[in-house]
Write a structure and sequence with these properties.
- It is a single chain.
- With about 550 residues, this protein is of the alpha/beta class.
- The strands form six sheets. Strands 1, 2, 3, 4, 5, 6, 14, 15, 16, 17, 18 and 19 form a twelve-stranded mixed beta sheet that branches. The protein has a four-stranded mixed beta sheet with strand order 20-22-23-21. Strands 7-12-13 form a three-stranded antiparallel beta sheet, with no helix packed on it.
- Helix 4 (about 70-85) packs across helix 17 (about 415-425), helix 13 (about 330-335) packs across helix 14 and helix 14 (about 350-370) packs parallel to helix 15 (about 385-400).
- The protein is globular, with a radius of gyration of 23 Å.
């Protein structure tokens, strides 16, 4: 059996100019990065602005196992299947982060015969977007520390610095550091910390910005610190936003690639859904809606994280609405939610499956609250038994939700034709998309609404620090923003050990942060961290490169 990277390396890719030509992208609108990937220039937006939008399809999932359960694979396979049934579909996906690639999960370009390619490029440096975001974030950090070193005319209180440095790698040793040691010439000593690049506000800003001007304005609005009088200090006060925009000028342009079956894909932006808003860029999604009759996009992790933020944050700012929601479910993940260990998921266990299906019920009910038709994609694994598949199918029938068996990992687009037909049908059904909450509500009420309606919590408890932060945000007049809750992806609750459909729990909000540039308020729940660590056996141990530049073991 071939590995993902071996399948990808055997792909017959078309020149990216040909993929672009099929979409009607003009030669002068394409900026090639080699033969098989390119950026799409700003001029295309002006040319296509009067063209009607296609249908938007959101792909999300139930709560996964620690290994992930194929949401990106399903998205890619669905795009390929749409083309097989004669539909013009364009994918709009996120860029992988190097942290998971070398950590526990591995690559994030799909899997099996449903991948975006060139797989190695997309999973590694790609077109440099992640590096540009890291550089822009850390330029702001450097200018902040340099300002304090050079006299501190803004009177920044070093005890109240909110900005974190970042890097796109899992490195737990950087969660808490001391900078400025070694004498007067080396800066002002203070506590500092790192977060992974995809959790940074700069990443969120890139994904939510409508154009270059909006990007610059948002960067200038990053709250970096308070001064000794308690007055907020923003990036624009340091004069950093212009140079940051220069670093991000090219990164703002969506990246065009293709699938194994030459379906066009815009891969752009990569925020995590458990610690950020978890969606690809608004610019890529809007471009895909103009270029195709169907735009297939994904939101990270379970629907309690990525989909909720896609619907309540991204759709709110972009003025878009999905015509259908695809909810990816696997027998493995449902058995995991039924209490079975990861090592035993390949064994038939109808009892655990029956117990874990309450997790699917919760996600279906949650997505229906947004007024959009839902289709369950049963992502099939080789170890799934017929008895297990039928039990899940019967449960979907009892819930009154459309479902389809997806075999895109093994068969590519051919294994997703049933799903594609169900999605097309769903897109034609009546839809009355609605946002879950009014952003003008108090911060605590918005968090309580999400906790109650999406997570199933009985109550929310705020730490003293969180209460102080919410009060400060309100005083700044920044409390009328949507909320981005950061929590574990493995449970509907903030406790990864509470699987299935937990009830009666209290959501613990330990910290609240203002992301003024991104335009949302971040609430950290439970023990979530914004800088992951590597596992005992990281995927990096299996990755190698030979003398000819041939990469192996990437996934």
């Amino acid at each position: 059996m071939l590995t993902d990277i071996e399948i990808a390396q055997q792909a017959k890719m078309l020149p990216i100019t040909e993929i672009a030509g099929r979409l009607g992208i003009l030669e002068e609108e394409l900026e090639p990065y080699g033969r098989y990937k390119a950026k799409v220039s700003e001029s295309i937006y002006k040319r296509l602005q009067s063209r009607p939008d296609g249908k938007l399809v959101l792909v999300t999932a139930i709560n996964p196992t620690p290994a992930g359960e194929g949401k990106t694979t399903t998205s890619v396979g669905l795009g390929q299947a749409m083309h097989r049934i004669g539909k013009n579909a364009v994918l709009a996906l996120r860029e992988p982060s190097l942290g998971p690639v070398f950590g526990i999960k591995g690559g994030a370009a799909g899997g099996g015969y449903a991948q975006v390619v060139p797989m190695e490029d997309i999973n590694l440096h790609f077109t440099g977007d992640m590096h540009a975001i890291t550089a822009a974030n850390n330029l702001l950090c450097a200018m902040l520390d340099n300002h304090m070193q050079q006299g501190n005319s803004l009177k920044i209180d070093q005890r109240r610095i909110l900005l974190k440095r970042c890097m796109d790698m899992n490195d737990r040793a950087l969660r808490g550091v001391i900078v400025g040691l070694g004498g007067k010439l080396n800066g002002v000593p203070r506590e500092d910390s790192f977060q992974i690049t995809v959790a940074s506000e700069v990443m969120a800003i890139l994904c939510l910005a409508s154009d270059l001007t909006d990007l610059k304005d948002r960067l200038g609005s990053i709250l970096v610190a308070y001064n000794y009088e308690g007055v907020p200090v923003y990036a624009r006060d340091l004069g950093a936003h212009g140079a940051m925009t220069a670093l991000l000028k090219d990164a703002l342009k969506p990246n065009l690639v293709q699938t194994l079956e030459n379906t066009p894909a815009l891969v752009h932006g990569g925020p995590f859904a458990n610690i950020a808003h978890g969606c690809n860029s608004i610019r890529a999604t809007k471009l895909a809606l103009k270029l195709g009759d169907y735009c297939i996009t994904e939101a990270g992790f379970g629907s309690d994280l990525g989909a909720e933020k896609f619907l309540d944050i991204k759709c709110r700012y972009a003025g878009i609405a999905p015509s259908a929601i695809v909810l990816v479910a696997t027998l493995r993940a449902l058995k995991y939610n039924g209490g079975i260990s990861k090592d035993a998921l390949s064994q038939e266990n109808l009892e655990a499956l029956q117990k874990g299906m309450v997790n699917l019920e919760a996600h279906v009910e949650n997505m229906r609250k947004y007024g959009v038709p839902v289709v369950v994609a049963i992502n099939q694994f080789p170890t799934d038994t017929q008895a297990e598949i039928e039990l899940l199918a019967e449960h979907c029938r009892q819930m009154g939700v459309e479902y389809a068996l997806s075999q895109v990992f093994a068969k590519g687009g051919a294994g997703g034709e049933e799903l594609a037909c169900k999605v097309v049908e769903a897109c034609e059904k009546p839809s009355s998309f609605r946002i879950l909450y009014d952003e003008k509500l108090p911060i605590s009420e918005k968090i309580q609404t999400i906790a109650r309606e999406i997570y199933g919590a009985a109550d929310v408890e705020f730490s003293a620090a969180a209460k102080r932060s919410m009060s400060e945000i309100a005083k700044l007049g920044q409390d009328k923003l949507p909320v981005c809750i950061a929590k574990t992806q493995y449970s509907l609750s903030d406790n990864p050990a509470l699987l299935g459909r937990p009830t009666g729990f209290t959501l613990q909000i330990k910290e609240v942060r203002l992301s003024a540039g991104a335009g949302f308020i971040v609430a950290l729940a439970g023990e979530i961290m914004t800088m992951p660590g590597l596992p005992k056996q990281p995927c990096a141990l299996n990755i190698d490169c030979d003398a000819d530049g041939h990469i192996s073991g990437l996934f």
